[in-house]
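#structure-requests
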Amino acid sequence: MIVVAFIGGLVAMAVRLPPLVGFLVSGFVLNAMGFQLTEGIQTIAELGVTLLLFTIGLKLHVRTLMRGEVWGAATLHVAASTGVLMGFLAIAKALGVVFIRDASWQTLALLGFTLSFSSTVFVMKVLEDRGESRSLYGRVSIGVLVMQDIFAVIFLTVSTGKLPSPWALLLLLLLPGAWVLRQILDRLGHGEMQVLYGVMLALVLGYALFEHLGIKGDLGALIIGMLLAPHPQAASMSKSLFDMKELFLVGFFLSIGLAGLPTWSSMAAAAVLLLCMPLCSLLYVVVFSLYRLRPRTNILATLALSNFSEFGLIVGALAVANDWLSRDWLVVLSLAVALSFVVAAPLNSLSEAISRRIEPFLPHIDPKKLHPSDRPIEVGDAQVIIVGMGRVGAGAYERLSDRYGMRVLGIDTDHERVQRLRDEGVNVVEGDAVDADFWDKLVMATSVELVMLCMPAHDTNIFALDQLKTRTFHGRIAAMVKFADHIDLLRDRGADVVHHLYEEAGQGMADDAAESMGRTIN
C-alpha cells in the first residue's frame, strides 16, 4: 500500500497535479488488486482528519465565525443548494438515469443536502499547500466549512435520534479552562513535549471527550484548537504537527478508493452527481456576491469549496443502516467524492488564471462598498514597504524605522496579526500578496524607494517579485530565502538584494560574538 501510494503521488506530481490526486487513484488501484479497507487504514485516516482540524483550529479565531460572510453565506448556500440539487436529481430520475430512477423523494432530498457540503479535508489541504489559509478567501472558506460541520452535527443528531449527553453542557467549562491549557503550553518549549501535548489535546480532550458526550469528535478537535489559537505558540504547535498530519492524511485519501470498487453503472451515477458540482459553485458565487466580496475573492473561495464532502460517506452509511439507501449507493458516493477531488485539484492549481478570465463577467462593485478587507490599499507617504510581517518582517520594520528613521508600511495577510501590530502602534495594513488584484489595488506612491519581500513561502516571494516587475516598480527590491539554491533564481528575476535567512543569521551572530571579544575584521 505504501509503495503504490508513493508511486501514485510521484505520477501526480509528474503531470503537475497535487499528490493527493495520486493517492486517490492509488486507492482504487489497490482495490482492483484485491486490497480492502482495513481497520488500521481507517484509524490512520481518522487520525489524519482529526489532527488536520486541530491544526486548522490553531489558526482560526472564534470571531471569524461571527461574520456575515461566514455564517450567513454557509446557511444560505446549504438551504439553496439542497433545493436546487434536489430539483436537478428529480430531472435525472424522470429521465431514467441508472440508480437515480428508482430513488424516492426522501432519497433525493438526502442526496441534495449531502452534496451541498464541501470537503473539509480537501479544502484545508489546498489552502495549506498554497499558504493561503489566513488570506481573506481562505478565512471565509474555512469559516463556511466550520459552519457546515455544525450543520452536520445537528443533522446526525436529529437523524439518529441520539441527543448529546446532558453532561455535554459541561463542555462550556472549556471556555474559562482554556486559560489553563495555554499556561501549560507556555511551559513546554518547542520539542517533543509540545508535539505530544498537541496530540493529546486533539485526540483526547478534543476527539475522545466530545465523542463520549455525543458530539462529533472532529468538531471537538477543531474547537480545542480554536481555544488555543490566541496563544503565541499556536503557530509553532501547528508546524510541529504538520508532517505527522500530512502522513496520516495519505491514509484518508487511500481509504476513499478502498471503500468499494466501482462498476459501470455506479460510475454513471457518480458522473451524474458530479454534474451537480457546477450548480453548487454557481450558488457560492451568488451568495458571496451578496456579502460584497471582491470578484477575485469570490472566485477563489468558490473554487476552493467546489467539491463534495467526505460527510457524504458518513450520511451514506447512516442512510444504508436506516434502509433509506441501498448499499450500492456507498460506492456511488465514494466515487463521486473522489471524482470531485480529481476535478477540483487542477482547478485550484489554475485558480489565478481562472479568476482573471471569469472576473469580467461578474458585476462590478463600488470599491467603497466592498468588504473592508477587500478595499484599495493606500500606502501614504511610506518610503519602505515590507510584505510579510512575521518575525523577519517585524524585525526589519523595527530596524528601518528606529535606526534609520525611515517611514515604513507593513503588509500582511493575517487579519489577527495585523490587528495585534496596529494595537502596538505599527503602521500595517491587511493585504494578500499572492493576489494579483492586491498589486492592482495597491496605490504605490512615488515616495516608495524599497520593497522588502519577507514572506516564508518561496513561491509567494517569487509571485510578488514578478508582480512588482510587471508593474514597472523603479525602486529597489529585497527578498528573503531559506535555501541557498533560491538565491540566483530571485536575482535573475530582478531582486536587488537577496538575504539567506539561516546563513546570514549565523554570520551576524558570529560577528556579534567576535565583537564582544574585542576582535575586529581582518
